[in-house]
Amino acid sequence: MDGLVWLLQLLLLLLTLPLHLMALLGCWQPLCRRYFPYLMAVVTTKSNRKMESKKRALFGQIKGLTGASGKVALLELGCGTGANFQFYPAGCRIICLDPNPHFKKFLTKSMAENRHLQYEQFVVAPGEDMKQLADSSMDVVVSTLVLCSVQSPARVLKEVQRVLRPGGVFFFWEHVAEPRGSWAFLWQQVAEPTWKHIGDGCCLTRETWKDLERAQFSELQMERQPPLFKWLPVGPHIMGKAVK
Question: How far apart are CA 92 and CA 151, in angstroms?
């Protein structure tokens, strides 16, 4: 099976050789960071249509997590275009964090369309190093389709626990690997080296539920969901919450 994966990866690499050469020469990443927000604006609009009821049910739980300020202090990791804003309860104080500064104009548009929220700041930083945010300063942290593309999910979750107050909640919705040994997992393995370039570092074969289980939250609730788009190599999703 490993030999077949390697052979098919090589074939796909040859078919997409210009992309890999650009990445090798350092030309692709700056270009990708500029176009990726436009791609995500399209994808998140489509996924929100499919996931509206699930997201409303998940993020509806935020309302009861008011902190000492009387409002919910919410940090969104990998905020992207602000596609989740419409699902957050009124009055949340939002801090947006993303390593890609080119999302800012999309965020500005989403902010204008969601006046029920209070926007604090846009922090350009990776999830592994959120030193701009104080310990125990957040009531809620949200991550949707983010842990697939970070350098270290374990380090991100450690930072999430640091910035959450005791009893604070981490809400997540992430795509994960297909079952090992399945043909679907094989195709994820084949596509992953090329997909990482297209998806700005997105890994198809991450078993993110294991990172969540190892993070030792006081409570973890999680459900598995089928893939949203059958025509993409992106696999099933996990959705749920973890309490500090």
Answer: 29
